[in-house]
Amino acid sequence: MAAEPSRIRTVAVAGQGGVGKTSIADALVFAAGGATRLGRVDDETSLFDFEPEEMRRRCSITTSLHHFAWNKHEVTILDTPGQGNFVADTHYALRGSCGVVQVIDASTPLRAEASKVWNWAGELGQPVLFVLNKCERPEADVDARLEELREQLGARPVLITVALRAGESMDGVVDVVSGCGYAYENDSGKFKAAPVPASAAERVVLLRSAVTEAAAESDDELLEKYLEAGDLSLDDIRKGLRKSILARTVQPVLCVSASANVGIVQLLDAIVDLMPAPSELPGVAAKNEDGASVVLAPDPASPFAGFVFKTIVDPHVGHLSVMRVVSGTVTADTNVINPMTRTKERFGHLLKLEGRKTKEVDSATVGEVIAVAKLRDTHAGQTLADAAHPVEIEGFSPVTPTISFAVEARKRGEEDKAAQGLHKLCEEDLALHVDRDEETGEILVSGSGQLHVEVACERLERKYSVAVVLKAPKVPYRETVRAKVPAHGRLKKQSGGHGQFADCKIEIEPMQRGGGFQFVDKIVGGSIPRNYIPAVEKGVRDALKAGTVAGYPVVDVKVTVTDGQYHDVDSSEMAFKVAGSMAFKDGFAQARPTLLEPFVLIEVSVPDECMGDVMGDLNSRRAKVEGMEQRGHAQVIRAKVPMAEVLRYAPDLTSMTSGRGSFEIAFSHYEPVPEHLVAKIVSESNKNAAQPGHG
Ligand SMILES: Nc1nc2c(ncn2[C@@H]2O[C@H](COP(=O)(O)OP(=O)(O)O)[C@@H](O)[C@H]2O)c(=O)[nH]1
Ligand SMILES: [Mg+2]
């Protein structure tokens, strides 16, 4: 039997990289009895970071899930990546959760990335619970972190557990509302009631009134009670707090230490007591068959609708589509429809994910996450629905890559195998893109950063047994013209029987940036017969694929065909195609050709004291700074900068800021390369083209 929706909790654990999300997720599963041993990231025994690429780097790369029962509730945990190269997955995975457990490292200042998870939760209307982790560290500073949460995120954090012995070791916690202390035994996760020391007692009283106030504000009746009696019952506090949290006006905060395994049981209780049941959340917006907006009620009795937020591809098992049940209840062996691809799909077994393993269940209802195998034509970001009610939930917005590498199969002849494997990886990883480079025929892999692309190549080797080498990152330069010129192409060949003849005159001129290519036919009087004009255009388009400056595609040009000659017997489409191509190549060189380079929009967050260095460095990279803004203790610099200058920005920023800076990049526009740099780019691309393996 599917669980009662009021007893379902599905939460995503999210936050910056390295704050201890995975450690907390493991500790939660262990505390609830869902594992017999406490999995640890550092020992490579985590239930969540089980992929070799994750274990090797001690870094979550993709979202993984586990579920367990706690206090008669069915809890599902989504452990998401925090590292900038992999957070696209986190953004998507949040579509699977009903609330966000945002983890903060209590021992270091909040970084600008924290606002990312916070904003995503806001967009999705999901309540947030903060966990301050690493509280056993001497540098842990709870008050400073709360201040940053208020200032930088505009959050309203309210402490509901604190360390039992503040300022000393983290060997227990106090539940602020009940005032009960709990002392933990070493790192077993076991605890017993303990008196609250005088050093903490006073603070706990103050904190309790803050919680009570936050609870009272949630509704008039409670507020009245509070104003009259000066206090609220435990039940009323819990009720009011839930309401404020659901309305996102308040965020509870718990202090824990995942590595000491302290405070985790209180966190479990808080997830069950304070995070929303799916049935308490507003319905999910969708479109029906006629394109009209509808709201899918989180009601187990409604027609089924599920949103697929993840695909897992296993070379042996095949595809697993992971979805959140948005509406209705589903049982094994059900037929549904994918309205986007208009495919009828059949669910065989319903599976719940347990780390790398799965468990079969009979049915699933609102708010639960299930996986089904071997769907015919369904991808992450799509909806599956009751065939009689084919609704569609808005899909994912695409992630634009910020870096591209050419890759080469290590073994000759394995290029196709590599390309196929990479395409399969793209099904699981929506931030990864694979293309062929038109100029060189090379495989191009693009992603959210160098690390992202490197990890993709490692996975390719492990899952599909084909090794590739990453070559230098590629800047997608383009070529264009700066002058209007006439040009002429003439093919005249006499070979044996009849010959080949075509003659065309064209004009080449620049277009505005982003104009692409335009072809205009101005032939009058049939100097080139109508049926040969498309051949001329085809020839020109072929020539555009590689300009003569450095072999990059030509863009932003207009070509007008003005005149020509033909021969009754010797002219052919083929001949006019060649003539068109010849004309363009001839004219291109005269039309003051040059290179265009891509610019990216970069947003760099740095601590105040590193501002000068980072700014100076950006200037030396030809950046055009557009603005600066203070966000908490960090400065955020926005600039447009040539992509070529920031291909390897990450390690440089790390060293300038001792690891406290972060940045984001998105494609912006193309601009001409400054004259003095053209020669260098040309000679480098000639060098590359001369290397073996380039077409
Ligand atoms: N000192 C300390 N280290 C912790 C704690 N929790 C996790 N870590 C360590 O922090 C590192 C990153 O942990 P992980 O769970 O992978 O972080 P994630 O990137 O947020 O998932 C690992 O080396 C953990 O052992 C904690 O409570 N205290
Ligand atoms: Mg992790």
Q: How are the strands ordered across the major sheet? A: 2-3-1-4-5-11-6
Structural class category: alpha+beta
Overall average pLDDT: 91
| Overall radius of gyration | 31 Å
Question: What would CATH call the class of the largest domain?
Answer: Alpha Beta
CATH superfamily of the largest domain: P-loop containing nucleotide triphosphate hydrolases
CATH fold-level assignment of the largest domain: Rossmann fold
Helix content: 25-40%
The CATH architecture of the largest domain: 3-Layer(aba) Sandwich
Oligomer: single chain
Strand content: 25-35%
Termini separation: 60 Å
Q: Kindly give the count of domains.
A: 5
Low-confidence stretches: 691-695
Biggest sheet, open or closed, and with what strands and sense?
A: 7 strands, mixed
**Number of helical stretches of at least 4 residues:** 16
Shape assignment? elongated
> Quick one: how many beta strands?
37
Bound ligand species: guanosine-5'-diphosphate, magnesium ion
Written overview of the protein:
- With 695 residues, the chain is of the alpha+beta class.
- It folds into 5 domains: 5-194 and 250-280, Rossmann fold (3-Layer(aba) Sandwich); 284-393, Translation factors (Elongation Factor Tu (Ef-tu), domain 3), CATH 2.40.30; 403-474, Elongation Factor G (Translational Gtpase), domain 3 (Alpha-Beta Plaits, 2-Layer Sandwich), CATH 3.30.70; 479-592, Ribosomal Protein S5, domain 2 (2-Layer Sandwich), CATH 3.30.230; 595-682, 2-Layer Sandwich (Alpha-Beta Plaits), CATH 3.30.70.
- It is built from 16 helices and 37 strands.
- A 7-stranded mixed beta sheet has the order 2-3-1-4-5-11-6, sandwiched between helices.
- Helix 6 packs across helix 7 (220-229).
- The longest helix is centred in the first third of the chain and has 19 residues, at 198-216.
- It is elongated, with a radius of gyration of 31 Å.
- The structure holds guanosine-5'-diphosphate and magnesium ion.
- Residues 17-23, 41-42, 58, 60, 82, 133-134, 136-137, 257-259 line the site of guanosine-5'-diphosphate.
